[in-house]
Amino acid sequence: MGRWRPDARARLQEAALTLYGERGYEKTTVAEIAERAGLTKRTFFRYFADKREVLFWGSELLEQRMVAAIETAPASTSALGLIGAALDAAAVRFEEVREFAGPRHRIIAASPELRERELIKAMSLTAAMTRALRTRGLDDTAAALVAHTGATVMHVAFEQWVDDPSRTPFQQIARDSLAQLREIASTG
Amino acid sequence: MGRWRPDARARLQEAALTLYGERGYEKTTVAEIAERAGLTKRTFFRYFADKREVLFWGSELLEQRMVAAIETAPASTSALGLIGAALDAAAVRFEEVREFAGPRHRIIAASPELRERELIKAMSLTAAMTRALRTRGLDDTAAALVAHTGATVMHVAFEQWVDDPSRTPFQQIARDSLAQLREIASTG
């Protein structure tokens, strides 16, 4: 126990999600998470700052990939096309963590503290997309509108994806939502 | 002091905003707000649950008016037209409180606790608009997309309006933003 193991992070995440689901986020301690994972508290703190960060680890990675998708899309890409590229990048990430996504989502929904943290992360993501869209030549208002629209589609598609018994890929749900929004905007 | 006065609420709000601006939200006490307004702590608590609610009082009224605008728009109104009606209702409210809006916005921006509270209120508003849009016949996904789009336009327009030296009406800024979003969606 306590030595570096290649799967320690994933085991700690899995143990944390199990315990948060069983006894609630507030009542679970870092010591219990480490014990359930067969590791020490010291190992836990090598990977995560605290028990909250187990749930939010990886959000920087998601943000980086979505921003990179906006920055590297072909020059001819339209504003909504840039959002589509960012959502495709999010789709890759979401499918990687699909097994964690549902339990994580329910644990966050049950705690005001965690919901607030999730909102702050979403704001950070939207701000990062706004900056990336400005580097693609959009003016400030257009960049903000498009970034928030991307956040909207991501949020609405995520809610459908995370509880979908037929396991429709996120990419498909997000593309359908973006197309639906486009139709609403053009006919409205 | 302490007796009911028709302007007590407004005086307490003004005193609170002045003190929050001068010495910071965290360092200001209810006793100081009451004293600055020439009223008692007891009178303060007749109007506000705590010093935070001075900043958020009225958000239910905004929500009610926006929901009512969606519910009572003519039957032929398009989905984005319903959002336009809700934004027009918000515009009336914002112009009523324009003098408070700028200082309030800066105080909230300076405090993580207040920013989180503001985000929760915005979520509540979006959820209320989603429900209202469903009663107008939109399916769940369309209602969520349209409500979030309304929240997006409101947010982006508010940021422009609150610091606009030329005092352009919120209604005009919001309508321009909605038109810009429509154009982005149709050409994107």
Task: Provide a descriptive summary of the structure in words.
Two copies of one chain form a homodimer. Chain A is mainly alpha-helical and 188 residues long. The first copy, chain A, folds into two domains: 8-54, Orthogonal Bundle (Arc Repressor Mutant, subunit A); 58-187, Tetracycline Repressor, domain 2 (Orthogonal Bundle), CATH 1.10.357. The first copy, chain A, contains ten helices and no strands. Chain A has helices at 8-23, 30-37, 41-47, 53-56, 59-72, 79-96, 98-109, 112-135, 140-162, 170-187. In chain A, helix 1 packs parallel to helix 7 and helix 6 (79-96) packs parallel to helix 9 (140-162). Chain A is elongated. The model of chain A has no long low-confidence stretch (mean pLDDT 92). The A-B interface holds A 78-81, 115-116, 119-120, 123, 141-142, 144-146, 148-149, 151-153, 155-156, 159-160, 177, 180-182, 184-188 and B 78-81, 115-116, 119-120, 123, 141-142, 144-146, 148-149, 151-153, 155-156, 159-160, 177, 180-182, 184-188.
